Amino acid sequence: MYNRAFLFNGIGSKPEKLLVNMPPELMDKYEFYLDSAFGRLGLSKDLEKNSSYDGRVAEWIISLICDRVVFEHYISKGIIPDIGAGYSSGIVSISGCFGCVPHEFAHDIIMMNRATMRCLDEQGEELDMGIVIGFSYNDIEELLSARFSPDVLVIGSGNSKFHVMLSGRTEAVAEALDLCQREGALKVFSFGTGVAYHHPIMEKYSREYVDFCASTEYRAPDYPMLSIFDREIMTTGQQVMRENQLNVYTPIRWDLALKKLEELGVTEFFDVSPNGAVSKFSRVNRKCKIYTLEDV
Amino acid sequence: MREITEEIRQEIKDMIFDYYAEECEVEKDEITMDTNPQEDLGSDSLMFVELIEMTADKYDLDIKLQSIGKYMLKAPMDTMSDVVEMFCKIYQYGNDIVNQ
To answer: Which residues are the signal sequence here (chain A) (predicted)?
Structure first.
């Protein structure tokens, strides 16, 4: 029986936004992990001093470190998960926190995004991702399926009844966002990061990343994990490794993953990001609650 | 169309001000009808969605976000006055707000 699920956020939150809600008593631990990780990886804590690719992955690693600090804080308070799920790169984060791989290896996986970005640049690919607020997965699918081929645009992630991520070619993403805005989206914006995570086109550009994910042996997770791709419960290291590999180029249904967790009996969700990022774009039914660091 | 009384209008205004004060961590009396929710309070669209959901629950409204989005194309939410006015219209017209 599952009652409590931990939810791990993906990349996207700026460090200053992540850290604003981190309580002072956790900042020492955060600084320790940050020094240790950035020292080992040769990244500058002054993020602007990092080269282009390094700067981006540095931000993402900060996100993982924040998750780790909050995760350990919850555990120290006796809040133990029965199950967990990771949203996008939250899969890497949960793999570290649930003991499948060392945290250092999780950071190394994130570093491998540099190879993917380099590969995309070398091939002159123009890719992007965008967010639509105010539409559900079904709304968007109905609106876009007749107008865009999956080769150029997919729904990268259905997050909730009002939050969807699009992924694909830059021009198609921009066109789709414009259309959604005209059709009543409350807000649309593009990431402008040059990558299209969760679009199948990423598969051929992320071979190094995918190979690296398989370059170590994964332990069975300390707590079961739910796949956000097929919504199966993962209890072996092999399954978690596969989840990490699929992550870059496979669309997500986060909304359905949360629904599945509810069906499994979960009523308490704990957002592991320090700023409650997951709780903002996720929704659960009225009998359930998403707790954030502020609530603990 | 649902009738709106002065009491309901005031209740909606209080609910909105209370919400932004709490979410944006500012004193309620620092917020005026001229305050810009994005620029002055740092609010974002996800907060706005939550406020819509809260209002729909409180007044038992069945409102589509796209109806509100289309209305906002005509009437941007630049000040708290705009926000209060829009929520009063949601109360009155529901999904038909798009035609107002």
So the answer is: none
Question: Of A211, A138, A128, A222, which is closest to residue A177 (Cα–Cα)?
Answer: A128
* Residue A287 in contact with partner chain B when CB distance is under 8 A: no
Q: How far is CA A50 from the centre of its chain?
A: 22
Structural domain spans, chain A: 4-119+201-291, 127-193
Domains in chain B, please, with CATH? 6-99 (1.10.1200.10)
pLDDT digits (tens, 9 = 90+) for A240-249: 999 999 999 9
B70/chain A closest Cα distance in angstroms: 4
For residue B50, pLDDT beyond 80: yes
A4-119+201-291 under CATH 3.40.366.10, yes or no? yes
> What residue spans of A123-227 are helical by DSSP H?
137-144, 170-182, 207-213
Confidence band for A285, pLDDT divided at 50, 70 and 90: confident
Q: How far is A256 from chain B (nearest CA, A)?
A: 20
For residue A136, which of A200, A170, A186 has the smallest C-alpha distance?
Answer: A186
Q: Is the pLDDT of residue A13 over 80?
A: no
What is the arithmetic mean of pLDDT over B27-38? 94
Q: Tell me which chain A residue has its CA closest to the CA of residue B44.
A: A187
pTM of the model: 0.90
Q: Structurally, what CATH architecture does the domain formed by A127-193 represent?
A: 2-Layer Sandwich (3.30)
Walk across the sheet containing A225-226 and list its strands: A233-234, A225-226, A83-86, A4-8, A268-271, A289-291
